[in-house]
Amino acid sequence: MSRRRISAVVTVLALAGAVPVLLPATTASAAACSSYPNWTAGKSYNAGDIVRYTDGKAYIAEHANPGYDPTISTWYWEPYACDSGSQTPVGTFVVSEAQFNQMFPNRNPFYTYRGLTAALSAYPGFANTGSDTTKKQEAAAFLANVSHETGGLVHVVEQNTANYPHYCDWSQPYGCPAGQAAYYGRGPIQLSWNFNYKAAGDALGIDLLNNPWLVQNDAAVAWKTALWYWNTQSGPGTMTPHNAMVNGAGFGQTIRSINGSLECDGRNPAQVQSRVTKYQQFTQILGVAPGGNLYC
Questions:
Q1: Most CB contacts within 10 A, which of 88, 113, 200, 207?
Q2: Band of pLDDT at residue 52, cut at 50, 70 and 90
Q3: Are the C-beta atoms of residues 82 and 33 closer than 8 Å to each other?
Protein backbone atom coordinates (compact mmCIF):
# COMPACT_ATOMS: atom_id res chain seq x y z
CA MET A 1 0.00 0.00 0.00
CA SER A 2 1.49 3.36 -1.02
CA ARG A 3 0.80 7.00 -0.40
CA ARG A 4 1.92 9.71 -2.77
CA ARG A 5 1.60 13.44 -3.14
CA ILE A 6 1.77 14.81 -6.65
CA SER A 7 1.24 18.24 -8.13
CA ALA A 8 -2.44 17.94 -8.91
CA VAL A 9 -3.91 15.03 -7.06
CA VAL A 10 -2.89 12.32 -4.62
CA THR A 11 -4.01 8.75 -5.14
CA VAL A 12 -3.62 6.08 -2.50
CA LEU A 13 -4.86 2.55 -2.28
CA ALA A 14 -7.69 2.63 0.19
CA LEU A 15 -10.23 0.37 1.80
CA ALA A 16 -13.87 0.41 2.93
CA GLY A 17 -17.36 1.10 1.67
CA ALA A 18 -20.12 3.64 1.79
CA VAL A 19 -23.86 3.91 1.38
CA PRO A 20 -24.74 4.52 -2.28
CA VAL A 21 -26.68 7.53 -3.47
CA LEU A 22 -28.04 7.02 -6.97
CA LEU A 23 -28.48 9.84 -9.44
CA PRO A 24 -30.29 9.64 -12.78
CA ALA A 25 -28.11 9.31 -15.83
CA THR A 26 -27.46 12.51 -17.76
CA THR A 27 -28.10 12.34 -21.48
CA ALA A 28 -28.07 14.74 -24.39
CA SER A 29 -29.48 14.41 -27.85
CA ALA A 30 -27.30 14.39 -30.93
CA ALA A 31 -29.11 17.53 -32.03
CA ALA A 32 -27.29 19.41 -29.26
CA CYS A 33 -24.09 19.11 -31.33
CA SER A 34 -25.28 21.96 -33.54
CA SER A 35 -26.15 24.32 -30.71
CA TYR A 36 -22.91 24.83 -28.80
CA PRO A 37 -22.17 28.47 -27.88
CA ASN A 38 -19.88 30.45 -30.12
CA TRP A 39 -16.27 30.74 -29.00
CA THR A 40 -15.48 34.18 -27.57
CA ALA A 41 -11.92 35.48 -27.34
CA GLY A 42 -10.97 36.46 -23.81
CA LYS A 43 -13.79 34.49 -22.17
CA SER A 44 -12.72 32.00 -19.51
CA TYR A 45 -13.39 28.34 -20.32
CA ASN A 46 -13.18 25.26 -18.12
CA ALA A 47 -11.90 21.85 -19.16
CA GLY A 48 -14.73 20.01 -20.89
CA ASP A 49 -16.41 23.12 -22.31
CA ILE A 50 -17.44 22.78 -25.94
CA VAL A 51 -17.65 25.76 -28.31
CA ARG A 52 -18.46 26.49 -31.93
CA TYR A 53 -15.52 28.27 -33.60
CA THR A 54 -15.80 30.89 -36.36
CA ASP A 55 -15.23 28.18 -38.98
CA GLY A 56 -18.38 26.43 -37.80
CA LYS A 57 -16.48 23.51 -36.25
CA ALA A 58 -16.76 22.43 -32.61
CA TYR A 59 -13.85 22.28 -30.16
CA ILE A 60 -13.59 20.90 -26.62
CA ALA A 61 -11.36 22.47 -23.97
CA GLU A 62 -8.77 19.97 -22.79
CA HIS A 63 -7.53 22.47 -20.18
CA ALA A 64 -9.03 25.58 -18.60
CA ASN A 65 -7.97 28.72 -20.43
CA PRO A 66 -8.78 32.44 -20.67
CA GLY A 67 -10.26 32.28 -24.15
CA TYR A 68 -7.36 31.11 -26.28
CA ASP A 69 -7.98 30.51 -29.98
CA PRO A 70 -8.91 26.82 -30.50
CA THR A 71 -7.09 26.64 -33.84
CA ILE A 72 -3.87 28.11 -32.42
CA SER A 73 -3.71 26.89 -28.81
CA THR A 74 -4.02 23.22 -29.58
CA TRP A 75 -2.75 22.15 -26.15
CA TYR A 76 -5.84 23.74 -24.65
CA TRP A 77 -8.35 22.70 -27.31
CA GLU A 78 -9.01 19.75 -29.55
CA PRO A 79 -11.56 19.26 -32.33
CA TYR A 80 -14.91 17.89 -31.21
CA ALA A 81 -16.30 16.21 -34.31
CA CYS A 82 -19.83 15.49 -33.14
CA ASP A 83 -21.41 16.72 -36.35
CA SER A 84 -19.54 14.13 -38.41
CA GLY A 85 -20.98 11.27 -36.44
CA SER A 86 -17.60 10.30 -34.97
CA GLN A 87 -18.91 11.07 -31.49
CA THR A 88 -21.88 9.68 -29.65
CA PRO A 89 -24.29 11.73 -27.55
CA VAL A 90 -23.17 12.59 -24.04
CA GLY A 91 -24.47 9.97 -21.64
CA THR A 92 -23.96 7.13 -24.14
CA PHE A 93 -21.05 5.06 -22.87
CA VAL A 94 -19.07 2.59 -24.97
CA VAL A 95 -19.15 0.17 -22.02
CA SER A 96 -22.56 -1.40 -21.49
CA GLU A 97 -23.91 -2.08 -18.02
CA ALA A 98 -23.51 -5.82 -18.61
CA GLN A 99 -19.86 -5.32 -19.57
CA PHE A 100 -19.33 -3.07 -16.55
CA ASN A 101 -20.72 -5.76 -14.28
CA GLN A 102 -18.50 -8.35 -15.97
CA MET A 103 -15.46 -6.18 -15.31
CA PHE A 104 -16.33 -5.63 -11.65
CA PRO A 105 -18.16 -8.73 -10.36
CA ASN A 106 -17.31 -7.98 -6.72
CA ARG A 107 -17.67 -4.19 -6.76
CA ASN A 108 -18.98 -2.19 -3.87
CA PRO A 109 -22.65 -1.28 -4.50
CA PHE A 110 -21.64 2.38 -4.17
CA TYR A 111 -19.88 2.30 -7.54
CA THR A 112 -22.97 2.21 -9.71
CA TYR A 113 -23.05 2.16 -13.49
CA ARG A 114 -25.74 4.82 -13.27
CA GLY A 115 -23.41 7.03 -11.25
CA LEU A 116 -20.72 6.63 -13.90
CA THR A 117 -22.99 7.50 -16.80
CA ALA A 118 -24.34 10.47 -14.84
CA ALA A 119 -20.78 11.76 -14.51
CA LEU A 120 -20.01 11.63 -18.24
CA SER A 121 -21.51 15.06 -18.90
CA ALA A 122 -18.69 16.65 -16.89
CA TYR A 123 -16.14 15.66 -19.57
CA PRO A 124 -17.94 14.95 -22.85
CA GLY A 125 -14.72 14.05 -24.67
CA PHE A 126 -13.96 11.12 -22.38
CA ALA A 127 -14.24 7.77 -24.18
CA ASN A 128 -16.04 9.77 -26.86
CA THR A 129 -13.19 11.08 -29.01
CA GLY A 130 -11.85 9.57 -32.21
CA SER A 131 -12.61 6.14 -33.63
CA ASP A 132 -14.66 3.45 -31.94
CA THR A 133 -11.39 1.64 -31.20
CA THR A 134 -9.94 4.71 -29.48
CA LYS A 135 -13.10 5.25 -27.46
CA LYS A 136 -13.12 1.67 -26.20
CA GLN A 137 -9.40 1.69 -25.49
CA GLU A 138 -9.74 4.84 -23.41
CA ALA A 139 -12.69 3.46 -21.46
CA ALA A 140 -10.77 0.23 -20.80
CA ALA A 141 -7.67 2.19 -19.74
CA PHE A 142 -9.60 4.36 -17.31
CA LEU A 143 -11.47 1.44 -15.78
CA ALA A 144 -8.31 -0.69 -15.55
CA ASN A 145 -6.48 1.99 -13.59
CA VAL A 146 -9.53 2.56 -11.41
CA SER A 147 -9.76 -1.16 -10.78
CA HIS A 148 -6.14 -1.27 -9.67
CA GLU A 149 -6.56 1.74 -7.38
CA THR A 150 -9.66 0.37 -5.65
CA GLY A 151 -9.15 -3.37 -5.63
CA GLY A 152 -11.78 -3.93 -8.30
CA LEU A 153 -14.08 -1.05 -7.25
CA VAL A 154 -14.31 -2.53 -3.77
CA HIS A 155 -12.71 0.30 -1.76
CA VAL A 156 -14.47 3.66 -1.48
CA VAL A 157 -12.49 5.36 1.28
CA GLU A 158 -9.09 4.92 2.83
CA GLN A 159 -9.30 2.43 5.70
CA ASN A 160 -6.15 3.46 7.49
CA THR A 161 -7.71 6.18 9.62
CA ALA A 162 -4.30 7.03 11.08
CA ASN A 163 -3.51 8.71 7.76
CA TYR A 164 -6.55 10.98 7.80
CA PRO A 165 -5.03 13.99 9.66
CA HIS A 166 -2.05 14.01 7.31
CA TYR A 167 -3.98 15.26 4.27
CA CYS A 168 -4.47 18.84 5.47
CA ASP A 169 -2.06 21.46 4.15
CA TRP A 170 -2.55 24.45 6.46
CA SER A 171 -0.30 26.61 4.26
CA GLN A 172 -3.16 26.95 1.78
CA PRO A 173 -5.01 30.26 2.25
CA TYR A 174 -8.36 28.48 2.54
CA GLY A 175 -7.09 26.01 5.14
CA CYS A 176 -9.14 22.93 5.97
CA PRO A 177 -12.67 24.20 6.70
CA ALA A 178 -14.16 20.70 6.89
CA GLY A 179 -11.67 19.68 9.58
CA GLN A 180 -8.08 18.52 9.61
CA ALA A 181 -8.98 14.85 9.16
CA ALA A 182 -11.59 15.37 6.45
CA TYR A 183 -9.53 15.09 3.26
CA TYR A 184 -8.58 11.41 3.18
CA GLY A 185 -8.67 9.29 0.02
CA ARG A 186 -12.08 8.79 -1.54
CA GLY A 187 -13.52 7.63 -4.84
CA PRO A 188 -12.29 5.69 -7.89
CA ILE A 189 -8.91 7.48 -8.01
CA GLN A 190 -8.78 8.18 -4.26
CA LEU A 191 -8.85 11.96 -4.16
CA SER A 192 -6.78 13.20 -1.19
CA TRP A 193 -5.55 16.48 0.38
CA ASN A 194 -7.47 19.72 0.86
CA PHE A 195 -5.90 21.41 -2.17
CA ASN A 196 -6.97 18.57 -4.45
CA TYR A 197 -10.54 18.63 -3.13
CA LYS A 198 -10.61 22.38 -3.81
CA ALA A 199 -9.14 22.04 -7.31
CA ALA A 200 -11.51 19.25 -8.29
CA GLY A 201 -14.48 21.01 -6.75
CA ASP A 202 -13.68 24.28 -8.50
CA ALA A 203 -13.40 22.50 -11.84
CA LEU A 204 -16.66 20.60 -11.32
CA GLY A 205 -18.65 23.43 -9.75
CA ILE A 206 -19.07 21.48 -6.50
CA ASP A 207 -17.94 22.70 -3.06
CA LEU A 208 -15.78 19.74 -2.15
CA LEU A 209 -13.54 21.81 0.11
CA ASN A 210 -16.36 22.31 2.59
CA ASN A 211 -18.14 19.04 1.86
CA PRO A 212 -15.56 16.38 0.92
CA TRP A 213 -17.95 13.66 2.08
CA LEU A 214 -19.88 14.06 -1.17
CA VAL A 215 -17.17 11.98 -2.83
CA GLN A 216 -18.04 8.96 -0.70
CA ASN A 217 -21.80 9.54 -0.53
CA ASP A 218 -22.72 10.56 -4.10
CA ALA A 219 -21.79 8.07 -6.80
CA ALA A 220 -21.86 10.62 -9.63
CA VAL A 221 -19.62 13.05 -7.72
CA ALA A 222 -17.17 10.24 -6.97
CA TRP A 223 -16.94 9.32 -10.64
CA LYS A 224 -16.64 12.98 -11.64
CA THR A 225 -13.57 13.45 -9.44
CA ALA A 226 -11.93 10.48 -11.18
CA LEU A 227 -12.84 11.90 -14.58
CA TRP A 228 -11.48 15.30 -13.50
CA TYR A 229 -8.10 13.77 -12.84
CA TRP A 230 -8.14 11.62 -15.98
CA ASN A 231 -9.07 14.47 -18.32
CA THR A 232 -7.23 17.44 -16.83
CA GLN A 233 -4.24 16.35 -14.74
CA SER A 234 -0.88 14.91 -15.76
CA GLY A 235 0.50 14.13 -12.29
CA PRO A 236 4.12 12.94 -12.56
CA GLY A 237 3.69 12.38 -16.29
CA THR A 238 3.85 14.75 -19.26
CA MET A 239 0.26 14.45 -20.47
CA THR A 240 -3.20 13.71 -19.18
CA PRO A 241 -4.32 10.08 -19.31
CA HIS A 242 -7.05 11.18 -21.72
CA ASN A 243 -4.51 12.69 -24.11
CA ALA A 244 -2.32 9.63 -23.79
CA MET A 245 -5.11 7.42 -25.10
CA VAL A 246 -6.63 9.68 -27.77
CA ASN A 247 -3.25 10.76 -29.17
CA GLY A 248 -1.81 7.26 -29.39
CA ALA A 249 0.83 7.46 -26.64
CA GLY A 250 -0.52 4.23 -25.19
CA PHE A 251 -1.67 2.76 -21.90
CA GLY A 252 1.79 2.98 -20.33
CA GLN A 253 1.59 6.76 -20.28
CA THR A 254 -1.64 6.62 -18.27
CA ILE A 255 0.25 4.67 -15.61
CA ARG A 256 2.97 7.32 -15.60
CA SER A 257 0.43 10.11 -15.16
CA ILE A 258 -1.29 8.35 -12.27
CA ASN A 259 1.63 6.85 -10.34
CA GLY A 260 4.72 7.10 -12.49
CA SER A 261 6.98 8.29 -9.69
CA LEU A 262 6.46 4.98 -7.87
CA GLU A 263 5.82 2.51 -10.67
CA CYS A 264 7.54 3.52 -13.91
CA ASP A 265 11.13 3.22 -15.16
CA GLY A 266 11.62 -0.18 -13.57
CA ARG A 267 10.08 0.62 -10.20
CA ASN A 268 7.44 -1.80 -8.88
CA PRO A 269 7.09 -3.85 -12.08
CA ALA A 270 4.49 -6.09 -10.43
CA GLN A 271 2.20 -3.09 -9.93
CA VAL A 272 2.64 -2.05 -13.55
CA GLN A 273 1.92 -5.59 -14.71
CA SER A 274 -1.24 -5.65 -12.60
CA ARG A 275 -2.53 -2.56 -14.40
CA VAL A 276 -1.55 -3.86 -17.83
CA THR A 277 -3.16 -7.25 -17.22
CA LYS A 278 -6.40 -5.60 -16.15
CA TYR A 279 -6.33 -3.34 -19.22
CA GLN A 280 -5.85 -6.35 -21.48
CA GLN A 281 -8.76 -8.12 -19.80
CA PHE A 282 -11.03 -5.10 -20.22
CA THR A 283 -10.13 -4.53 -23.88
CA GLN A 284 -10.95 -8.17 -24.49
CA ILE A 285 -14.37 -7.70 -22.88
CA LEU A 286 -14.94 -4.70 -25.15
CA GLY A 287 -13.74 -6.60 -28.23
CA VAL A 288 -10.91 -4.23 -29.10
CA ALA A 289 -7.13 -4.62 -29.43
CA PRO A 290 -5.14 -3.05 -26.58
CA GLY A 291 -2.71 -1.27 -28.87
CA GLY A 292 0.99 -0.74 -28.21
CA ASN A 293 3.12 0.99 -25.59
CA LEU A 294 1.49 -0.80 -22.68
CA TYR A 295 4.33 -0.28 -20.21
CA CYS A 296 6.04 2.76 -18.77
A1: 200
A2: confident
A3: yes
